Amino acid sequence: MSKKYPFKTIEQKWQNYWETNKTFRVVEDPAIPREKRAYVLDMFPYPSAAGLHVGHPEGYTATDIYSRFLRMNGYAVLHPMGFDSFGLPAENYALKTGTHPRTTTEENIDRFRVQIKSLGFSYDWDREVSTHDPDYYRWTQWIFLQLYKRGLAYMEEVPVWYCPEMGTVLANEEVLTTPEGPRSERGNYPVERRPLRQWMLRITEYADRLLEGLETLDWPESIKAMQRNWIGRSEGANVRFTLEDSTEVLEVFTTRPDTLFGATYMVVSPEHPVVKEITRPAQAAEVQQYIDASRLKSDLERTDLAKEKTGVFTGAYAINPVNDERIPVWIGDYVLMSYGTGAIMAVPGHDERDREFAETFGLPIIQVVANPDVESWEEVPAGGRGATIAEAAFTGNGIACNSGEFSGQDTEAVKQSIITWLEQKERGTRAVNYKLRDWIFSRQRYWGEPIPLVHCGDEIVPVPEDQLPLTLPEVESYKPAGTGESPLAKVDEWVACGCPDGSDRPGRRETNTMPQWAGSCWYYLRYIDPHNTAKIADREKLDYWLPVDLYVGGAEHAVLHLLYARFWHKVLFDVGVVSQDEPFQRLVNQGMILGSDGMRMSKSRGNVVNPDDVVAEYGADSLRLYEMFMGPLRQSKPWSTSGLMGMHRFLDRVWRLGERELFDGEPPIALKKTLHKTIRKVGDDTRNLDFNTAISQMMILVNELYKEDTLYRGIWEPFLRVLAPYTPHIAEELWERAGYEAPVSCAEWPIYDEALTTDDQLTIVVQINGKVRAEFQADRDSDRDVLETQARSLEKIQSYLAGADVKRTIVVPNRLVNFVIG
RNA sequence: GCCGGAGUGGUGGAAUUGGUAGACACAGGGGACUUAAAAUCCCCCGGCCCGAAAAGGCUGUACGGGUUCAAGUCCCGUCUCCGGUACCA
Fold first, then answer.
1. Is A759-821 CATH 3.10.20.590?
2. How many CB atoms lie within 10 A of CB A469?
3. Strands A662-663 vs A711-712: parallel, antiparallel or unpaired
């Protein structure tokens, strides 16, 4: 296909122009009113060795078009880019080759920067940040110290995923469940759970605020739902069961205190500490065997194998606090130690899992809630056992039965009254539980931010803020220490240091480093004041730009990154760094770009498209335009090279129009109308990020321009301004060639004339019983009876109406006339 | 299982929120230009029926019902696909 238009030269020329002139540099100008400022943010990339993927330019083009559009509309736009440059791949590479991760990372960053710049994005490159830069991570460490000082960072022994092969702890999200059991995401090595002392961040303390904050955000409902699920708040009660012949009390959390009368047994998790205390000698062997088996199982595939309920009786009995019934205590691995209290009251009548367990082991099932959709239920006499209900557990709300004084009330009421009753008797309390766990924050790796703490004897002393950054020492080997400690632990001269509190005590540096999430938790703040050496960022500047008005990125960060960043932002709000407690006002997830086979792009499928090749062959403008034309931004869509060629063809057509001589005369009214419709539609669609339909409108205009022999200046000039945010290079070049002062990037968005966006003549459809039978032209806003008369006068309609009984006539002005006939 | 989203031509997708279904593009077909090809320009393009053609008719937005003068759009039920999550008490 032809590549007539010299995109290579043009794109290079204008990229140089923008760079030399710092066209997109932005400063905090107080004269610009608040409502004319916008912070448009991309999720910054991890600079992988593979280079840019075609998925990156999708979101980046979207925000670029939006930013350019806003600028042309008089906005000050903060639109920065940077690199999430700490991370495991560079360190793994170092392990293999001995190359310093910094070297690899910085080479990759250089390559990424070139690739990103080749697409002509309007970033303010003066604000670029990289998370591995000591000037940057100095402030990551500073934030950690604020967390530490507020008691939000603590050390605890927790079971963590440990990879013996790599000698390091992995985050939950770095572990995949495979048919062979849990494996590391990178390298596919087996991993296992080990209890290790780790740094934890108390994100659970912010659970409610993280939940409530979602209400105020303009985010996709699906992402909010995922975060709500992740936080997993549930309300209920903690209920204390006394144990027979024991001083121990078994506490459970339940969301259904109203079913307490139906609790016929209890189950504790195999890891529960009370197991040791309560197991009777007769059951000891069996219990121990079960615990051992379940430990193995959890190391393998607990979730998948766990379809059938297993368990074992401890020999112990508990007393149901509401009716003093004696109920057996079992152990079962369907009860998780990590949720609630690690023990449950089992209500097999009204919980599917408990029901399944009870049926497996022949435990009694009592109905205590009547399904209101079924008329009757069996009232069991007090103390009656063995009365079962229907085929399955009824888990809905209904009317309490078999519940002593509480019978007859509805579920919600019983919940409240039983909680009150429990509280009065001091047998339980109202309680809220979360699925959300505290955040395991330490990694036994080299290539991350050192945690700025020093162990002085038993005391932990923070590195004073004015001594930050605490930089990474050079190491001889990137291999983990093999002791569950990071490679830093082997660097004696770095680890050994004086205690920073000024005493003579010897100190040992914390050798754990932070996870990759740390740097990306707050990068959007540093863009605001990237070179500040005294503060994380100047307060006035933060107030100038925050919150982020539009944040675009992939849905894969729906929970972790976006939750962690919100958490840190709220802490920084509490610390007084920022003035609002949510960082990202509006969030949009771009859809995935799939291979041309409709499958996820991957090397193994051989369907990967390299943006460099596309830019080389068709140009950045074609790539940008194609990625926006493929379909709605938020939707996943397959790549099509012929589709891309179509976009290139369109730009070629635009270019050839530009080779015509400009004519200053008055353009035909039809063309002017199309122009003004185009200005309006492209403006509206760009504002809504509906780029695909904006582009088709521009195509309509270009198609019409081709029907004329002359190119009218009055059409061409505004068209170039409309085109500019989408394909800025060709627009700049044509703008300059048309004799206007560059750059078009700084031109004003054209204003459309409302009157020219509407047609005076409209096609009115005539329907008979809702079926289109004819159509005619009518003046805009014609009266109803005028339309009806015109419709009736049509020959074809007359033949339909002849002899028919018109029961009703519906006239929709500017649209249709519908005759309902008998 | 649960939560979220989506099913429209050969393909990617439009459709002013109830008012001409298929804009725009890709692929395909035809024509013009050319010695020829490429490129370019113009035209056609959901299916079926009738017709030489023009016209016309029927049908059609996953499937089955419903509301309405009118349904891709609203309601009820079913199926399929994608994303997330999974014994969370």
1. yes
2. 19
3. parallel
**Strand B–CB A475 distance below 7 A:** no
Q: Does domain A234-433 have CATH number 3.90.740.10?
A: yes
pLDDT digits 0-9 by tens, A267-282: 999 889 999 889 999 9
Boundaries of every domain in chain A: 234-433, 611-756, 759-821
User: CA A793, C1' B13: Å apart?
Assistant: 39
Q: Is the CB of A653 under 7 A from strand B?
A: yes
Is A193 in a helix, a strand, or coil?
strand
Whether A611-756 shares its CATH topology with A759-821 is answered no
Residue A502 (CA) to nucleotide B56 (C1'), in angstroms, measures 98
- Whether A726 shows a pLDDT value over 70: the answer reads yes
CB proximity A767–strand B (7 Å threshold): yes
**Closest nucleotide to residue A699 (Cα to C1')?**
B24
For residue A590 the two structure tokens come to 């771009």
**Contact (Cβ atoms closer than 8 angstroms) between residue A344 and residue A254:** yes
- Asked if A225 CB < 7 A from strand B, the reply is yes
Residue A388: predicted pLDDT: 46
Q: What is the ipTM of this complex?
A: 0.94
The structure tokens listed for A750 are 């054209």
Task: Assign domain A611-756 to a CATH class.
Answer: mainly alpha
User: What positions of strand B are covered by protein, i.e. any atom < 7 Å from a CB?
Assistant: 3-5, 11-16, 19-21, 23-27, 38-42, 57-58, 69-71, 82-89
pLDDT tens, residue by residue, A402-457: 888 888 888 999 999 999 999 999 999 999 999 998 988 988 889 999 999 999 98
Nucleotide nearest to A600 (CA to C1'): B82
Q: Which window residues (351-390, chain A) lie with Cβ within 7 Å of strand B?
A: 351, 353
Q: Which nucleotide is nearest to A626 (CA to C1')?
A: B25
